[in-house]
Amino acid sequence: MRQSAPPETGFSSTAAGAAAGLGAAAGGLASSVSTAFQRRGEKKVKQGPTVRRSNKRQAMLTLSRVEPWSVMKFSFVASVVAFIILFVAVAVLYMVLSALGVFDSLQHQVASITSSQNTAGTNISTWFSASRILGYTAMLGALNIVLITALSTIGSVIYNLIAKTVGGIEVTLRETD
Predict the structure, then answer these.
(1) Which pLDDT tens digit goes with each residue over 86-106?
(2) Domain positions in the chain
(3) 171 within 8 A of 62, measured Cβ to Cβ
(4) Taking the C-alpha atoms of 107, 112, 118 and 121 in order, what is their torsion angle to the nearest 10 degrees?
């Protein structure tokens, strides 16, 4: 009687080969990962010309609306500050010119030009009094506060209408170094 050998299947030998191949591949992958992990701390030396890339972020934005109430508050405060600066500058300039005797010299020159034998000439000293100069400065400053605030607010409303139609102003924002 002839004994038959167990039937050979290609599956068992192929499975063993595949398992060995997978084991080798897994081992190779593990060694390459561990080598890369060890090299992570080492400094790399690049050869050849290097191109430096900028790590700055930038964003392109569109200014599509400006709040009129914010514009009114900001322009009011800015115009009040401008009024204070103007008033102080005029007061300091008036004091310097008065201390130098410019107004007295002007009064004397105008009086000598306009005088005749019968009259003493025109007295312009009231035109250059501190109360008149600073009063006109305050009146001009108050008018500027009202006009600048109103025109800025109206300008923001007009900008909003135009931006709604056209799309607004495009602005690119970029980080600094």
Answers:
(1) 999 999 999 999 999 998 888
(2) 58-174
(3) yes
(4) -20
Give CA angle at 63 (162, 167), nearest 5°. 40
Token couple for 21: 């191949």
Tens of pLDDT, residue by residue over 149-164, are 999 999 999 999 999 9
pLDDT of residue 50: 64
User: In DSSP terms, which residues pair with 171 in a beta bridge?
Assistant: 61
The pTM assigned to this predicted structure is 0.59
Q: Letter for the amino acid at 24?
A: A
DSSP 69-122: HHHHHHHHHHHHHHHHHHHHHHHHHHHHHHHTTHHHHHHHHHHHHH--SS----
b/e per residue, 110-129, with b = 16+ CB within 10 A? bbeeeeeeeeeeeeeeeebe
CA distance 119 to 124: 14
Are the C-beta atoms of 38 and 112 separated by less than 8 Å? no
pLDDT in tens, 35-76: 554 555 555 555 656 666 667 888 999 989 999 999 999 999
